[in-house]
């Protein structure tokens, strides 16, 4: 499964910079960008000889401003075996989680041209450190419940299922008549503030908490 995700990640990061791919676009506005932006849909080529062949189709959605591709990207895939749909968010720069959800919602009309979102079964976001609002809220609640000690993956799931994050994700999923089944953060640990600059080097950390939940992104497994 790890190699599948790595393959898809490679496709997503490369495809928005590949001018030879076919593209469909709709107009869009991007926060704090004075240039008109366009949401671009790019179909990724699947190599059936590798694990990525487990997917029947793969698209990337990204925003173009003039000659530049903006940082925020959405990767969509569909499994061959059951037609379930996966949505992954990719970006290197921090963004508010509420804004990330807005960008996903903005892209839904284009996504629905190629994917049946009634089959949406999985979401993946970057680690909490990349979303200041998520980091602040989760760290505060975590410290109130557990202090600064590590907890089990089972405890982490229970914590997240009753958190600020679940309120946001639950509201997003309501539009599809869906709900969260469980959360997962691979290689979960607590990241100390002194190490934040490794991930968000250009951010003002004055309002960030002293630690944050961290790992290889936040996975949301959705009820069928």
TrEMBL record:
PROSITE patterns tied to this protein: PROKAR_LIPOPROTEIN (PS51257)
Protein name listed in UniProt: Lipoprotein
Species per Swiss-Prot/TrEMBL record: Pontibacter fetidus
